[in-house]
Batch of 2 targets.
Target 1
Amino acid sequence: MAALKSQTIETKKGTRCRVLEGGSGAPVVFFHGAGGLLADNPFLDGLARRYHVFAPEWPGYGESAGDELLEDMLDFALHGWDLVDALGLRQPHLVGHSMGGMIAAEMACLAPRDLARLVLVGAAGLWLEEHPIPDIFAMLPQEIAEVLFVDPARGAALLTGGADLSDIEALKDFYVVTQRRLAMAGKILFPIPNRRLSRRLYRLTAETLVLWGASDRLIAPAYAAQWKALIPGARVQTIDGAGHMLPWEQPEAFVEAVTRFLA
Amino acid sequence: MKFTWFNLMPWPYLPDDFRETHRSVWVDIPSTLYDPRKGHHVYHTYLDQLEYAETLGFDGIGCNEHHQNGYGLMPSPNLIAATLARRTSRAAICVIGNSIAGYNPPIRVAEEFAMLDVMSGGRLVAGFPVGTSMDTNFCYGQIPALTRDKYREAHDMIMKAWASDEPFAFDGKYNQLRWVNCWPKPIQKPHPPIYIPGGGSIETWDFCLDHDYNYSYLSFFGYLRGKALLDGYWERVARRGKDDSPYRAAFAQIICVADTDAEAERLYAEHCLYFFNRCLHVFPPFADPPGYRTMATVKYGALSQLTRARQKILENLTWKQLVDERFVIAGSPETVRQQLEECIKGLRIGHLFCLFHNGDMPDWKTRHSSKLFAEKVMPHLRDLWPEWKHDERWWVHPMDERIRPEEQRPGAEKPRAEWPR
């Protein structure tokens, strides 16, 4: 298995981001969601068997710094392209999960000819009145695992990386890390994760795959249909046995679906 | 010492099992629990009490801003203050305050506060809270991580609007106005005294000291728990090389006075327990959304008052705990005097926001407690800071020839009966 290595990339704007990198082949950039990358991300290893995979962490996540430099949707999307530039990539495939999907779609609207293909996985960014997305900023920790995973107990363990939260110091560390991440995510997701992307999606030219966990309790599968309706020619694929955290819940099915689409 | 009579204006009809059957008194409390016809009586009772407090000799009467909240019926404190401006003429009107990050555009606050200062003849104390996360983020939709930045910008616009004699353009990140021209202007120059209510954010201390504003710690958990925070503040004051006038700081305290300690329990216990058990029942995530507090504050460990740990304290609370831990200062005039002296000196505060109406307390008990305090406690606490006697930097400076429109004051004459059913 291709082991991912970690490096720090500085963008022109001055953010310093940790990027996991591995494999060879066509470049694929994976953008994580509001919860960040987890301690183990087996689907990245899976993708790295066929592609040259890059998985940057947003500022505010892990060791990545420069939180204060990004404040709104345009900042986040341009930061995405700044990273692509700093990594020296040309026309990479963009794969975005949840908030990462929202940013990837925005990037593709801004510079439609600068990417190869686009994969949106349980992507945030749209709002349907009949399917209000639960407020992740007003949840108890145990409630978060319940909306993110088909199997909340297993999910909770994934989220904490197996840390023992009965230990007060571990709990404090976990709390500080989580607060910092979601503070950052809140800039584009609070109070409603809709920054009017739907008005710009007409610009998309990249072929797009919309992937969804069949049991997503955070962003209901109805949103997949909405993405399809807004993006000309988009394909939708739903994967069973997965909730919102599809790439972690069904890594093999996820890698297979992405690989088949990117070919 | 300055004493301000403060009413949070709680809804007195929350059901007995509110805590068990609802997750929060704030943000998503069912609005069906509110009855506007009863609300009519509630507002007038509370407004009468504020007017009554002036006749008792309190220096100030106060109100604040909360939204979607079962213990704070003042989404617009300026409406409350406007009625008080017409019906009082001596007491400072302390609006603590307007959560300015949520006003669009913030010039509205400059205008309304100026109106209040003019109507009251220069009696306005202007509070600028960041606002609780319940109010500012969850009810008013401001992004937590940007709230403080937006707050600072709103503050800058308001202060510049009051200071400037010429129209100016304001090119802010959150507010752009081509023509800022505050009309009317406040009577008090250069501006009314500014109070910054803080929970436990350490940045707020520096903000107060940068501008020489009053820092008001609005806690419901008494001076024993407030001490660590105020100690931190005074350390900061010293490090910044500022004088240590106690008038730089204010503290809120629940107070219940009766003829004896036992009588205080008999009269007030159930109402204070109503307040702590029902009114402070807040769903913890509403109190602490990521980004609302800065990382510096999160790491400093100054936790919001309504976090999980606090909710734990509120379970199975008894009167004895409330009194022993000084969440409530209650008892005979002498007991209350002793404890308040300890509170005032221990925290080094020049302003006390006194909370006499608590939970579902009926009007007559509220007045009884307030009157005993005004007659038998307040006079003994007046001169605790003799060396700062003439420090008026954080108090109102009303004009001399004021209109006194409050001659007919039915509210001041006699208490109302129990809450109407």
Target 2
Amino acid sequence: MTTPAAIELDAVSKVYGGRSDVPVVDTVSLTIPAGSFVSLLGPSGSGKSTILQMIGGFTAPTSGRILFSGEDVTGLPPERRPCNTIFQDLGLFPHMTVAGNVGYGLTLRGEPAARRATKVEAMLGLVDLAGFSGRRIHQLSGGQRQRVALARALVLEPSVLLLDEPLTGLDERLRQQLRDEIGRLHRRLGATFLAVTHNQDEALALSDVVAVLRAGRIEQIGSPRELFERPANAFVARFVGADATIKPQAVEPGAESWTAIVGDRRIACTPPPRRADAGGYVVALRPERIRAAGPGETGDLGPVDVVAATYKGRDVEVETRLGDGQTLKFLVPVHGGAAPPSPGARIDLAWTPDRALLVAETRAAEA
Amino acid sequence: MTQVEASARPRRPGLPRPPLAALPAALLVVGLGLAPLALIAFWSFWRFDPATYWITPDYTLASYAALMDTGRLPVLLRTLGLSALTAALATLLALPAAAVIGLMSGPRKAAVLIALFTVPFFTSALIRAFAWRLVLGRNGAINQTLVAAGLIDEPLEWLLFSNFAVIVGMLAAYLPFAVVPLVLAFGRIEPSVIRASQDLGAGFWTTFRRVILPLVLPGAVAGFLFVFVVALGTSSEIQLLGGAGDSSISIMINDVMRVVNFPLAFAIATVVVAVAVAVLLVAVRFFRLSKLFEDLGT
């Protein structure tokens, strides 16, 4: 990429505790281009929040360097870093009004009162809170508080905005609304946004680049489409949406296509992006692309026993059991025409023309 | 964006309605607190005859007049001043202590540290005050150390039997009353609030002044009031550590009671209660003490 890097992590590690225990963040190197929206996606305990805290300056890395626009800020306290943070629990000042909160950073910068008021009003308008400046924080709803936190950080025009689980704790409707607003603010302000989340929908919808983390290391980094269509391993595949995976008895390498053997079926798969170690390979499928094979059609997999069918609003989730005891779930759209199979039925599954992905079960990049 | 959540506090299910639930506490407060005070105020208006020691229900302001003109007012004012000074110093001293306990310690450590502040109450006020004589006296620990270190030639006289000694004694005894409400106030501050202040460009002192101090102010005022009210009733520290002839409100009440002038004793007590209530009302009005009991943030 030719755009300059807003943030660079250079082999950053973090170890808590006196002894050299398992690192929370393990030699992570990451380049975040200026103006981009990057998400750190991972389950809790993957070290994503710690990375954000180290970038914000609230936790010092055990080793490694953090650079902002090429400048080493590793030793700088939070108040001297050119970034602002939206904290998971926001950290709004309960003793100040909305305007007091939003104007806090400007006051510290010595902005004259009149200019400050203008900027605060403009920013409140931008986050849809015009007319709320005199309110107290405890008079606001959850979504409104979230907006105050956004306004308070963005009014300082930071080159980098860090968002720690920005949508956690909001109800579904508000999540989507705020998610869209964050995306809109990013496009409009042109600042670099770095978000931490455990929610793949959020990460995929907002980000230019997503880094998937597990146990303090980056499993894969790429565009949402890359992650979705070419997951580097089973962990990424499961985390980013292909949570229908089966373990084959054997795989046969090929030039353009590998073959996975499940039961007596030979499943043609895309070749794995990385070679597997002892963990072996996993066949990853998209639950929404699997269907029950029609009468007379030979499916890609089967026969399987239907164990349960659960209504989920838009889809019915069908749980099936393979001959060797593995379970595989897939989705049947409620308004798709075909009725979902009933529990107890024995069916064949098909996903052609979609292709199954073959991915390594464990991290095997070094192998 | 028009939805505004109801800010009313939800009532916990399973509890009786507030008026009924408050009944036992209300009975206690009225029976053990308000009723005796009302009686004292009532009797303070009766007449005392020094010749016969008779007390008659005459309804007069004589006791209040006596309070004003026989040198008792200076004692009253001096005790009020000393109590206010002690309360102010205790609040200042409690701030850093409470910050360490409330902000930087985990719950376990905080419990241990708070428990340590109850040590002064392990002994009686008399013994506690007397112990300070051994520390502050002519041949006390401090003077001996200072002389031995060559910092002074003669023992310092003002260490003991002085206002200084009285304040030291009261501070040692009453500091916990200032620490506990402040610890609670510090404990209510969300760590992210402090981080947010730093994140927005404030260094430590700016954060302390603009965010932390305003948030713990109700706790500081509550601590000040506790120490002030308790110090108003002090006698041991004044008798054992104060200068010759030093008096205080409670010593004065004691003396008056000894000559069975109950109306005067009650008049003094009534004035003290009135002052304490007035200070409390001012504090509640101007420092929003109710914040201590309000859910901040979320």
